Each structure stands twice: as structure tokens, then as C-alpha cells.
Amino acid sequence: MDRLASRDDADDLLRLITKRDREAFTRLVALYDSDLLRFCYMLSRDVQTAEEATQSAWLKLWLRPPSLRDPQRLRSWLLSVAANEARQSMRRQRVGRIKEIAAMERVGRQDEGLESRIDLDRVLAGLSTDERELLALRFALGMSSMDIGAHLGVGPEGARTRLHRLLVKIRKELVSD
Questions:
Q1: What is the Cα–Cα distance from 37 to 43, expressed in whole angstroms?
Q2: Per-residue exposure over 95-123, b if at least 16 CB sit within 10 Å of its own CB, e if not
Q3: CA distances from 121 to 70, 118, 124 (A)
Q4: 90 part of a folded domain
Q5: What was the pLDDT predicted at 83?
Q6: What is the tally of structural domains in the chain?
Q7: Is 176 in a helix, a strand, or coil?
Q8: What's the pLDDT score for residue 46?
Q9: Is position 1 within any domain?
């Protein structure tokens, strides 16, 4: 659920930010910065990428505030922009990451105890960005199925179904280890 108190608050903040009101912008950053950072970290699994994506989202808001029909969707707009920024950054870093992961896997295979324990990090690394986004929306940000559905453009039932299927997939991966 959006932390803004009412539709009027969101309308007012957007209107003020459009007029370059620093106090309104600061208020909005105080409301959502930690959520955006946590969300981007869940997507990218990298602190620097998360920080850069979050900063880029704030910069885009400041330079070109959105014209939203429903100002209550401001949080969702910010999450979408931040997610896109994180994805772009991850694409640019992909080659280096693939080499790093391959090296870690070679080292990991040498550890006999590694095969016998649950490796959640490896399972999460194998998820798509969209799957990690879904997990972040639910577990890092605590969004409801209704809010997740609105963010993803599906109904609450669709959001619950996607989350359920993803959790089943993760459990299956963990058990098969």
C-alpha cells in the first residue's frame, strides 16, 4: 500500500515537484528511498547497482516528473523506473558477472560440503530479473497482492498465482540440491 496519506497528498506532491519544490521532493525521497534501494538490490544483488539505479530514478523524477492519471501510482512509477535502470546497468555488467560466477562455481565444486547444503543464493541467482522483482515487491517491500498486481498490470489473483508458481519453483530447486 502506498504510504502517502491520500490521493490529495500524491496530487500535491506531484504538482509541487513539477514546480521544482525541493521540500516536496525531499519529502518524497524520505518516503520511498529505502524501498527503492531495497527493491533495486533484490533485483541486481549488487549494492552499487542498486544505489545507481535508485539515484537515476530520483533524477528522472526531478528532471521530468510523470503526468499520471492516478497520482497514487507514483510509487509504482518510481519502482518501474528504478527497475528499468537496474536492468540496464545489469546488462552492461553482464559479461563481467558471467566470468565472475563461472569462477565462483569452479571454486564451489571443489568444496565437498557445498553440495550437501541449501544454496539459496545460487537459486536466486538463477532467477530472471522479473522473478526477483516479484520476490522483492512481496518480501522486501511487503506489498499486497493488490498492489503487486497494479504494479505488474495484472489483477490481485494473477499476482498471487505468479508468486505461488515462483515459490514452488524455488522450493523445487532447493529440494533438488
A1: 10
A2: eeeeeeeeeeeeeeeeeeeeeeeeeeebb
A3: 37, 9, 5
A4: yes
A5: 93
A6: 1
A7: helix
A8: 87
A9: no
The range of the structural domain enclosing residue 112 comes to 7-176
The answer to whether the beta carbons of residues 140 and 38 sit under 8 Å apart is yes
Q: pLDDT exceeding 90 applies to what percent of the chain?
A: 42
DSSP state of 173: H
Mean pLDDT of 150-159: 93
State pLDDT tens for residues 4-63.
544 457 678 888 888 999 999 999 999 899 999 999 999 888 899 999 999 999 999 999
Q: Which of 172, 68, 56 is nearest to 123 (CA)?
A: 172
Domain assignment present for 146? yes
Q: What is the DSSP string of 22-40?
A: HHHHHHHHHHHHHHHHHHH
Give the pLDDT score at 48.
92
Residue 45 lies in a domain: yes
Instruction: For cell 530514478, name the residue.
Output: 57
Hey, what's the cell of 81?
A: 523506473
Q: Which of 6, 90, 105 is nearest to 48 (CA)?
A: 90
Top pLDDT among 70 and 156 is at: 156
